[in-house]
Amino acid sequence: MNFVVHSVTTELTIADRLGLPEYSYYFVLKVFRPVLETLGRVVTVSDPWSEVDPLYDAAVARGERCVFLSFSPPNKTPRGLRCPTIPVFAWEFDSIPDEKLHGNPDENWCEVLRELGHAITHSSFSVRVVRERLGADFDIVSIPAPVWDGVACRRSEVDALWADGQVTLERPGVFLDTRTRSFREAWNFMNTVRREFPLDLPAEVPGRPGWGDRKRSVKAHAIACYREAFRDLLPDMTARALARAVRATALRRRGAPEWDAARESPASRDEGPLQLSGLVYTSVFNPADGRKNWQDAVLAFCAAFSETEDATLVLKLTHRDSVAFLQQVGHLLYKQRPFRCRFVVVAGYLDEPDYDRLIAATTYAVNTSSGEGQCLPLMEYMSCGRPAVAPAHTGMADYIHAGNAFIIDSSLEPCAWPHDMSFFFRARRHRVHWESIVAAFRRSAQVYREEPAIYRRMSEASCAAQEATCSSARVVRTLRSFLSLG
Q1: What's the pLDDT at 249?
Q2: Strand partners, 438
């Protein structure tokens, strides 16, 4: 069997695309590739239109089968190739696009999937959504990313890091730690590392904003709109040139020297080491993705542990410009004062040793999103035996249950598809209940401190659920059956 695979984001571009739409498909392809290599020959292509069919023709000439796996949503999957094409995608809404959005026929997922005839997704929820629209006999299968083996094999080493009740991350990158910095120091620190348009911390909580505050607010929202809605539509070279020009203009207005790209960037500064101990909750997410709903997690943590000194919430940001989001977190925390619990925001890249140390320090993995295609970070932490505080909806419903998680209640609310610029309500997402997050935090802390036997059972159940869901053995069996490999 020959597998031709493609993702728009590659090893060479992931640093520039981290946090942009579809960036996570690179990581899905990365963990899928070793499994595919056990089933046949794997070739990665950068231009499907010119490379896939010649590889297919060569395989056919050798009397071998060949299939093209496009790790991308249906609207970004090439059509019209001679090689059988299967999109591998994640989806977390209760309906799929069934019309030409913005006049583009590729945006009609129903027509694209009917033409392709096959699809792979990562959850039984997504399978149900597609079949509700295309029929129960549509050839689609749920195959989660096989992350269990790579993480579970390191579990004993990870657990050993927590032997003395404290873990130290050696190079955590830029981070905000409410335990080691006053809010004034933290805000000044964030202003020094932010590269574009820092916002000043008011001396006190403001009342009615002045004209200066209004201008800064308009500027900040304009920048956020550009970053989230338009920047990924520009060629990379154009976007970088525009960013340099705007940054240079802002620095000249402030009388500061222009940033020297040859120097170490602020986002890569070593502000460590970072020590973690006590009751640690960790959430890994893209702060630019509004579906992650991290604000509710922060506010609920404050409500649950405002008087608990040894309770820590670690927010690990996954975005190429995570430093830009530090101020959003800092401003939200500033308004919650006073509290005695600890918040740590890690914005830098963590190498594997430090990432393992963060898992080792973690008591519970946290997710408060309105929908997930599968949620790789949560799957990794649970594969290493960390129970969850999370809802049991969309892609998470396949592995979150009362035996391995403190389940957050949610209910459906109308929403728009994320790539629909008309913002019409044509789908539904899950609105998590804030009071339920608070209750889950409090109950999870009680179990860890007072009922260690229950915590150990939940830890084992977390690992077992991931083995059943996303182990390489399970993925191989499902792929063999789906592709009729025998």
Answers
A1: 58
A2: none
DSSP SS3 for 124: helix
CB 342: neighbour CB atoms within 10 A?
Answer: 23
Strand pairing class (139-142; 118-121)? parallel
Split at pLDDT 50, 70, 90, the class of 334 is confident
Rounded alpha-carbon distances, angstroms, from residue 213 to 172, 239, 283, 336:
33, 27, 32, 21
Whether the Cβ atoms of residue 311 and residue 305 lie closer than 8 Å to each other? yes
For strands 2-6 and 279-285, give the pairing: unpaired
- C-alpha distances in Å from residue 291, one per residue of 274, 375, 468: 28, 12, 27
Helix (H) or strand (E) holding 283: strand 279-285
- Residues 40 and 456: their CA atoms lie apart, in Å, by 39
Q: Are strands 274-277 and 279-285 parallel, antiparallel or unpaired?
A: unpaired
Q: What b-and-e string marks burial along 345-367, b requiring 16 or more CB atoms within 10 Å of the CB?
A: bbbbbbeeebbbbbbbbbbbbbb
Query: What pLDDT was estimated at residue 265?
Result: 35
Per-residue model confidence as pLDDT tens digits over 182-199:
555 555 555 555 544 344
Residue 370 DSSP symbol: S
Question: What ranges make up the beta strands (E) of 409-450?
Answer: 410-415, 427-432
CB 466 within 8 A of CB 300: no
Contacts of 173 (CB under 8 A, 6+ apart): 267, 268, 269, 270, 271, 272, 346, 347, 348, 349, 350
pLDDT tens digits along 396-442: 999 999 999 999 999 999 999 888 877 889 999 999 999 999 999 99
Distance of alpha carbon 446 from alpha carbon 456, whole angstroms? 14
Per-residue pLDDT tens digits for 9-30: 777 776 666 766 777 899 999 9
- Whether 148 and 142 have beta carbons less than 8 Å apart is answered as no
Q: Which residues face 344 on adjacent strands?
A: 177, 314
Nearest to 336 by CA among 290, 304, 293, 369: 304
How far apart are the C-alpha atoms of 306 and 311, rounded to whole Å? 9
The region of weakest confidence among 78-92, 112-126, 205-219 is: 205-219
Whether residue 257 has a cis bond before it, omega within 30° of 0: no
